[in-house]
């Protein structure tokens, strides 16, 4: 191929573009600009080619993505449809299971209600039968309690009457021997008012009063220390040995030698001794309430000093010891150290009472 020198190329070039039919286009291009135009044209073509290639690739990628998206959407729709169906199936199955459980629960509740009603009916029947027996038992117990209460009240009243009668007797005895007590007379005439039953408090006061009287009277020298004739009284008399006026501090009771002499009250032996020119064998009892009793001229003493003595206990035997003219007992009652006339204490032995049952 023959090379053409640049200088041989005309400075202006004509480009004509025409078709097979019709007119054409004519362009004038300077020789210096041809390279630029060719470069621009080549660049443009290159850019178009690259843009076309990129566009085709983008389009293909787009189509691929669109296809993938479509496929994924279809898969997702299918999956969604399957999930929904499965979920509905599971929900339906769960609902059926719950319904079955609920039915079983309702059945159990009905059974429990029926059992409860049966138990309640049975208990009501048992309670009704028990109530009747309980009422009968309570009625019986109340009747027994009322009867016991009535018997107790009768016993209480009888006891109170007996205690009251005994208290009056004791008061009467103590009044006779000079003890300062109030003796009320039982008189039902010209009296009345509502009946008020004797209560336990009143009985307790009677018991306390009776106990106090009994304790007191046990230490009072009451009655005779022995049986026998009174040969010398209390007070002034002629001395049996010298016939001179004298004071006799007690009484003399004639008896047989060896006759029993008994204590006239509870007490303690203060002295048990012998006086040759006095009481001979003698015993003095101290009774703890200011009273003392003296027993003289005994043939034998049977108690010792400090010994505790009860009323009626044997303390000695009758004799003729000491300054005595014959077998007898010198009996003397002292109060706070001074001899007193024992006559009223002896007279208690002659009292007679009827003790109520």
3D structure, described in words:
With 357 residues, the protein is an alpha+beta fold. Helices cover 48% and strands 22% of the residues. It has three helices and 14 strands. It has helices at 31-176, 200-218, 343-347; strands spanning 12-18, 24-30, 229-232, 235-238, 245-248, 251-254, 260-262, 267-275, 280-286, 291-301, 308-309, 314-318, 328-335, 338-340. Strands 3, 6, 7, 8, 9, 10, 11, 12, 13 and 14 form a ten-stranded antiparallel sheet that branches. Strand 1 and strand 2 (24-30) form a beta hairpin. Helix 1 (31-176) packs across helix 2 (200-218). The protein is rod-shaped and about 225 Å long. The mean pLDDT is 83.
How are the SSEs ordered, and which strands pair?
Elements: E1 12-18, E2 24-30, H1 31-176, H2 200-218, E3 229-232, E4 235-238, E5 245-248, E6 251-254, E7 260-262, E8 267-275, E9 280-286, E10 291-301, E11 308-309, E12 314-318, E13 328-335, E14 338-340, H3 343-347
Antiparallel strand pairs: 1-2, 3-6, 4-5, 6-13, 7-12, 8-9, 8-11, 9-10, 10-12, 10-13, 13-14
Helix pairs in contact: 1-2
Mean pLDDT: 83
Q: Helix count, per DSSP? A: 3
Shape: rod-shaped
Radius of gyration equals 74 Å
Low-confidence stretches: none
Helical content band:
40-55%
Biggest beta sheet attributes:
10 strands, antiparallel
Structural class: alpha+beta
How many β-strand runs?
14
Head-to-tail CA distance between termini: 184 Å
Keywords:
357 residues, alpha+beta, ten-stranded antiparallel β-sheet, two-stranded antiparallel ribbon, rod-shaped
TL;DR?
The chain is an alpha+beta fold and 357 residues long.
């Amino acid at each position: 191929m023959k090379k053409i020198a640049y200088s041989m190329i005309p400075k202006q070039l004509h480009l004509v573009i025409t078709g097979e039919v019709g007119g054409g286009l004519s362009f004038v291009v300077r020789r210096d600009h041809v390279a630029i135009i060719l470069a621009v044209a080549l660049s443009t073509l290159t850019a178009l080619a690259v843009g076309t290639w990129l566009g085709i690739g983008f389009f293909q990628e787009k189509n691929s993505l669109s296809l993938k998206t479509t496929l994924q959407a279809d898969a997702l729709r299918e999956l969604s449809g399957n999930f929904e169906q499965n979920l509905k199936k599971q929900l339906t199955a769960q609902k059926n299971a719950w319904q079955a459980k609920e039915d079983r629960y309702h059945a159990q509740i009905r059974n429990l209600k029926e059992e409860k009603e049966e138990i309640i009916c049975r208990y009501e029947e048992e309670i009704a039968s028990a109530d009747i027996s309980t009422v009968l038992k309570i009625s019986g117990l109340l009747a027994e309690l009322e009867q016991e209460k009535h018997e107790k009240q009768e016993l209480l009243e009888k006891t109170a009457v007996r205690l009251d009668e005994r208290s009056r007797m004791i008061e009467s005895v103590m009044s006779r021997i000079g003890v300062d007590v109030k003796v009320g007379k039982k008189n039902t005439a010209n009296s009345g008012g509502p009946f008020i039953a004797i209560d336990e408090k009143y009985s307790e006061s009677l018991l306390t009063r009776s106990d106090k009287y009994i304790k007191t009277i046990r230490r009072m020298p009451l009655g005779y220390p022995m049986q026998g004739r009174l040969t010398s009284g209390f007070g002034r008399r002629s001395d049996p040995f010298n016939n001179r006026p004298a004071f006799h501090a007690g009484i003399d009771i004639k008896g047989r030698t060896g006759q029993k002499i008994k204590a006239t009250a509870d007490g303690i032996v203060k002295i048990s001794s012998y006086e040759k020119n006095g009481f001979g064998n003698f015993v003095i009892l101290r009774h703890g309430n200011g009273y003392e009793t003296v027993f003289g001229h005994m043939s034998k003493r049977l108690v010792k000093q400090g010994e505790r003595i009860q009323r009626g206990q044997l303390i000695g035997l009758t004799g003729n010891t000491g300054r005595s003219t014959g077998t007898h007992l010198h009996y003397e009652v002292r109060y706070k150290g001074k001899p007193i006339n024992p006559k009223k204490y002896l007279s208690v032995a002659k009292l007679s009472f009827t003790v109520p049952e």
